[in-house]
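Cross-check.
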Amino acid sequence: MAGEVAIAAAARRRKRSEDNKLGQRSTSSPLAGFVHDARAVNLRTSWLISVAAVALVGPVTEPVLAQTATSPPAFSRLTIRAGALWQTTDSRLADLYKPSTGYSGEVSMPFDVGEFALAVERATFTGQEPSPHPDFHGTVGMLKWRMPLPSVGPFTLALGAHTGAMQFSFQDTVIAPGLRKEMELLFGVNAAGSVRLPANFSAFVMGEYTHVHLHVPVHLAPLSAGIGYTLTTPGWLKDFLR
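Predicted model, tokenized:
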């Protein structure tokens, strides 16, 4: 019901005159129909994503733990990855915006169990005609945890979960300055496949399914691909993490 109300409200806003829209922009957020209500938690989606993460990671935990003797020691190396990003959104957001090709980057490190990564993604979302909403840059920051499956030759696949926040930076000077940026929590599941290349390089492909925690849920399914480089963790950083 909340989704139907928000979609209907968006349709009515598109039919208003430009004067009315400008007046509204100056006093309210461009995502007014999607703004998060802290009391309106989508428990069903949260539960489904949590179950999916356990279902994906759980079955591979035991065989991977059995290989800890051959796994890299915790904090022993850093893998830096950078690549292109292609965003896919659900129908609610796709009716209003079209995402362009963006970029992604992350730094990962082995842990006692699995690996942790800090990641950033950025893409521009362009308002759809007619009566487009203001364009915005979507910047995502995440903490990821992944559990690798047993390697097959140079190929590695890892599954995991992530959490973080997404910042909406609107590119419209008519909007009140205090409303041009919004930040919302997110969480989801992810998978990463990589193949080793010479000289400590690697090629990777990553996929995610992310729930952006708005009052009307928005879901993103980004796909990224690029190159990684692995190096030994500097001693001072290793000592600090330990």
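The first strand starts at residue 77 and ends at 86. The chain has one domain: 2-241. Passed to J.P. for a second look.
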